[in-house]
Design a protein that fits this description.
alpha/beta; single chain; Alpha-Beta Plaits; four-stranded mixed β-sheet; 3 domains; GMP Synthetase, Chain A, domain 3; Histidine-containing Protein, Chain: A; flat
Length: 218
């Protein structure tokens, strides 16, 4: 099988970012690749541009990891209290019940989510509700998932979920369960597949931790 070079991967990432209409300010994004690890640098005018550029890079075959060092340089600065108030309302709209257990901290445009929730999808939803808020430069999601009783057959349920997923070659993924912690091992062909397997594992009830040890084969 033809092995992809860092140069091939770099070109494909640049093309994928340029191709994605969600990235509105791609001309200021630079890409470097070493041993399959992609580093994105430069400046954009919104957090969403940084987010979608990273998402585009994850889709490229041969990328094993990504370091997103893109800086958000806002045309006009907003105050932290303004950002925090809008963020609070956004999370409350998205998660009307769970939002009472989530704390929002903003400093110099860096927004941190803290607190706990019952399911991982709620942690994801809280972060997703904030990405388009003007003024945010960085989002750090420190929300933890509460530990719950884990069904005995949960590893088989996770394996079945992986098999059902059309984006994955489940035969090459192994699931290990220790209490409420899941460890994923095996090989996939892209970083996006690796993250999709992780998402599937997090969908299981009672899971508080997922260690993704899946390797991306070049």
């Amino acid at each position: 099988m033809f092995k992809r070079t860092d140069s091939n991967i770099k070109t494909d990432i640049e093309d994928e970012i340029n191709w994605d209409p969600a990235v509105t300010d791609d001309t200021l994004i630079a890409v470097t690749v070493k041993d399959g690890v992609a580093t994105l640098t430069g400046f954009v005018k919104s957090y969403m541009d940084s987010y979608y550029a990273e998402k585009a890079a994850k889709r490229v075959k041969g990328v094993t990891a990504i370091a997103n060092d893109i800086k958000v340089k806002l045309p006009t600065e907003r105050t932290d209290p303004e950002i925090a108030e809008e963020a609070f309302k956004a999370v409350k709209r998205e998660l009307p019940t769970t939002s009472k257990n989530i704390k929002i901290v903003v400093k110099d445009g860096w927004l941190k989510l803290e607190g706990e929730c019952d399911w991982y999808f709620q942690k994801e939803a809280a972060e997703r509700s904030l990405r388009s808020i003007n003024g945010i430069k960085i989002i750090s999601n420190f929300i933890t998932v509460k530990e719950q009783a884990t069904p005995i057959d949960i590893s088989k349920k996770i394996e079945a979920a992986l098999v059902r997923n059309a984006r994955l070659d489940a035969d090459n993924i192994q699931v290990e369960l220790s209490g409420s912690k899941v460890t994923l091992r095996g090989k996939v062909h892209s970083l996006s597949e690796k993250l999709e397997a992780q998402r599937a594992a997090w969908s299981a009830p009672g899971i508080t931790s997922v260690e993704n040890a899946i390797a991306v084969s070049l």
